[in-house]
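We include the pair:
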Amino acid sequence: MAGLCAAGKMEGCILGKIHLLEKEVAELIAAGEVIDRPASACKELVENAMDAGAHKITVEIQGGGIRLLRVRDDGSGMDPEDVPLAFLRHATSKLQQAEELYRIRTMGFRGEALASIAAVARVELLTRPAGSETGMRYCIEGGEQTQSGPAGCPPGTTLTIRDLFYNTPARMKFLKRDTAEAGAVAGILEHAAVSRPDIAFTLIRDGKTVLQTPGNSRAQDAVYAVWGRDFFHSLVPLSYDAGGVRAQGFVSRPALGRGNRGMQHFFVNGRPIRSRLLTAALEQGYRESMMKGKFPACVVDILLPPGVYDINVHPAKLEVRFADEKRVFDALYYGVKSALLPLEPQGIEAILPAAAAPAVSAVLPEGPAVQQLPLQASAFSAAPAGPESALPKAAPPLEPVLRQEIARNGGTLEVDAASYRGIPGKTPLQDLLAAAKKDFGGTGEERAAAAREAADREAEKKEAAPAKAENRQKGAGRFAGARLIGELFYTYLLLECDEQLILIDKHAAHERLIYEKLKSEEKLESQLLLTPAAVTLPRRQAALLLEQQRTLHALGFSAEDFGDGSLLIREIPTMLPAEEAAASVMQIAQQLEDGADTPHVQQLDALYHSMACKAAIKAHDRNGPLELQALLALLNEHEGVRFCPHGRPIAAVISAAQIEKLFGRRT
């Protein structure tokens, strides 16, 4: 991602003296207060350090950044006479004329950040320009200068913010816990580090280094350092040019879709943004490659001339307007298609995670050539195919199944139809047995006996019909007395009951049953995983999960911090398949983030929906007859289960009259 390395550099732009903007210019960009938490203060200070040409930026926080936030850089520093001006509103060295708003090349430009921070905190600034023998120390509290004078310090600038919002208790009460605020600060550093791999970033939290990037201008090394080995090796490079708009970076392999959009990272000329347009373009590119309900991950930078987009839309500079949205959409959409194209002819092995990933420094070449790299087998080697049990099983041949039934029943072909209605292959067992008697040496007398038994069963069925109707009226279940004929497409159960053919969507039915069970229990039963599952999340989401251990335990999960935004899942609900553990935890993390600190009823309901869907038997699963009978028994016990949690009906009915019309027996 050469663009991510170059983004943010002030090509042809030399910072001048700090000065107050003219009133007319200031009114065009006035954004009001932009400091609402430690992360927003950190963002402004880090952007200033990047604009100052820093090669190393160190951020230190204590108490989530509320008690202490220190940003140190080795940039150009500030002249002593400019320091007091820097803390006035609309004082900046990056903008002079209104026309320059449409050619912005710096991360900051409004001149509001330092004034806003100084108004709500105790601030100490140490700065020394390159070539100067001494630096300057400047202190300001609540917007009022307290100290100023020469001081010894290294070249660059160090800003120390203490007791943020000490004089605005109303704003203080809206802050989250220290871990959540620290996670938000980490998120700011993550985006900054990936957008500028030429800068070495370090984050120190309560005396411990939690993030460090090499600053070697290699985008892949920055991504590896920020989000870890597993995430990095799930990515493939992307590069596409659409008429002056270039999309480049990394996108995830289709088979490694995630449960939410938390790992979609977009940049415009190195500036982190949120964009529905880019989200839509990314996901449209995966439309035919990724399972429905899964989301791709990405680290994508859109490179375009400054004059064709407007970043002065949102106070936090997180939204952007594009002059030509279609061209931007096409650049990312076709970029995704071209990045995924080399994977398709190679089969499923090409989209599985690497079995033995090489060291990060050996994965991609240095510098801009990374974007032109074709997919190499040595770089993204495929893992061996999974265990045979993970693949769909074909229906067993008829003859071995029948021989097995004969041996089980003492050498005869008589089977208890009440407990064993059918076999894999979608054909009723009674019909299979009758058709196979001749092949297994059945005599004419045996065939006659079978015909008499069939007639007796038909007579019993007619006699039992009134009793079945009475049982249903008494609440014995809608499917009491129904005969399980078999399965259609390994998805729909076929039942015969009272001159009707009933089709039941086994996934929808099982999903609703699990959903009702989840809602009725205060704490879900857990199972211990033999091998803990690792999941990588954005640091803010990981921090929220670690805070909400009680919620996790109530949902049947147990997780612990594994470092760098990763969690180890040690326990999961007993009803949840182990392979769905990571996706479920991602979903929980997203719901917690959407619902602030504490999940509301709506968030919990959505979690139950998601968990029930993942735990339920799936369409096309090969289920034995006893499993299907057990599902029917549960449906009979829960008379109110008529729709799945998403509102789809679980059953459909076709009457005998409708079927007879199809064959011309009725008009």
In short: The first helix runs from residue 2 to 6.
